[in-house]
Amino acid sequence: MTTMKTTSTREQIIELLKRREQMTVSAVAAELNITEMAVRRHLNTLERDNVVVTTLQRQAMGRPTNVYELSNEGQELFPRSYGELSIELLKIIQETDGMTKIEELFERRKDRLKRTYEKRMFMKGFDERVKELAAIQSELGYMAEVCEDESGGYLLKEFNCPIAEVAREFPVICEAQKSLFKELLETDGVTCELCMATGQGDHCYYKIVNSQAHN
Q1: How far apart are CA 82 and CA 168, in angstroms?
Q2: Exposed/middle/buried for residue 203 (C-beta within 10 Å: 0-12, 13-18, 19+)
Q3: N-term to C-term CA, the chain
Q4: N or C: which end of the chain has fewer CB within 10 A?
C-alpha cells in the first residue's frame, strides 16, 4: 500500500507565495477554499517565524490592503543546487589548473572574509574575540555556540555547515576556515576536533586556546 504525503495548509500557503510572489489574504483563501480567518492565523505564524513578510499596498479605491510574500528565509525553504554547482565548477578548475589553483581560491576567500570581519575584532581581548567569532559564524549560517573549556580555553561548536557539500569534495576549505579563525583570534591554538563534512560527527567542534598567553 502506498502512503501519500499530506501537505499542510501552511505548506500550501508557502508554495502559493512561491508561485505567485505576492498575495492578499482573500486571494489565498479563495485559492485554498478556506476562510480568511484561517489564512490570517497561518500567515501570522509564518510572519512570526520570519518565513513571510507583509507590506501595505495602496488601492485605487478603498482602504490599503496587506500583501504577503516570502522572506529570504522563506525562499531558502525550497531546494537549491548551489553546492552541486560549486563542486562542478571547482572540479573543472581542478582539471584545468590543478589543485594548487583550488587552494589559491580558498586562500583568497579566507583573506576576503578576514578583511570583512577583522574590524569587529578591533580593540577586543581574546575572550571577546572568541565570542564575536561565534556570533559571526552564526550570522553566516553555522548555528555556532561557544562555551568555556575546563582547561581554560574555549569550545566552539557549529551545528550546521552551509558549505558541507563542497567541503566533502574539497576538505581544503576546512583548513582555510581554521586558518581564518587563527588570524581573527590572533592565536595558533585552534584545533578541529570533529568535522561534519568528513563524517566524523553531526557537528563541527573546535578547541580554542590563547597561545599568546602561554608565550
Answers
A1: 14
A2: middle
A3: 68
A4: N
Name the residue type at position 195: C
* Nearest alpha-carbon partner for 78 in 33, 19, 148: 19
For residues 16 and 31, what is the distance between their CA atoms, to the nearest angstrom? 9
- CA atoms of 190 and 70, how far apart (whole Å): 39
The string of pLDDT tens digits covering residues 18-48 is 888 899 999 999 999 999 999 999 999 999 9
Give residue 23's Cα distance to chain centre.
Answer: 27
What is the reported pTM?
A: 0.68
| Intervals of CATH 1.10.10.10 along the chain | 10-75
Query: Which amino acid would we find at residue 70?
Result: L
pLDDT confidence tier of residue 155, bands split at 50, 70 and 90: very high
Q: Tell me which CATH code domain 82-214 carries.
A: 3.30.1380
Class of domain 10-75: mainly alpha
